Amino acid sequence: MSITTTTHLNFGGDARTALAFYASVFGGQTTIASYADFGMPKDAPGAELVVFGQLESADGFRIMAYDSPGAVGGSLIGGGATRREHGTTVTEQSCFVSVRGETLAEVEAFWAKLTEGGTVVEELAASAWSPGFGMVTDRFGVTWILDVAAAS
After folding, report:
1. Residue 54 domain boundaries
2. Are residue 52 and residue 20 in the same domain, yes or no?
3. Largest interatomic CA distance in the chain
4. CA 135 to CA 122: how far, in whole Å?
5. Per-residue pLDDT in tens (0 to 9) along the chain, 152 residues
6. CB 118 within 8 A of CB 138
């Protein structure tokens, strides 16, 4: 048996822009369908919003996105802030998105792009368990954990 999990991000009108941004960070192809594509009258408020969005890359990165009707702006992932305080991570968010790369150079490239317009929670640096670990909340309010797989 094989199983695959895919993070599904919910937005308040920013799903299309977020998917384009994540494609610029991780590469891959997007698939986007709007509410109008699924039958909502094209002139109805919100018809252009994303009812189904996906980004998938050849190297295995996959994320889905959706615009929640009636919500306005940013990510709807639990809301709230994430910060470092007294050596611990303190958060009001219900989840983070974790991306693990094979090399530090690979992860540094993702990091450089995700931090543009975002807020660094913990700088990308060597840790006790990884040659590189960092946390950033991107411009859409999604908090990412990036790290490098430890050598086996």
Report:
1. 7-67
2. yes
3. 56
4. 5
5. 889 889 999 898 999 999 999 999 999 999 999 999 999 999 988 899 999 999 999 999 999 999 987 655 555 555 666 667 657 666 666 678 999 999 999 999 999 999 999 999 999 999 998 999 999 999 999 999 999 998 76
6. yes
At residue 123, the pLDDT reads 96
CATH of the domain at 138: 3.30.720.110
| Angle, alpha carbons 79-111-103 (nearest 5°) | 130
Q: Is 76 within the bounds of a domain?
A: no
CA atoms within 13 A on the CB side of 7: 20
Tell me: do 116 and 58 sit in the same domain: no
Name the amino acid, one letter, at 60.
Answer: G
Burial 84-94 (b: 16+ CB within 10 A, else e): eeeeeeebebe
Domain count, the chain: 2
Beta bridge partners of 56: 29, 62
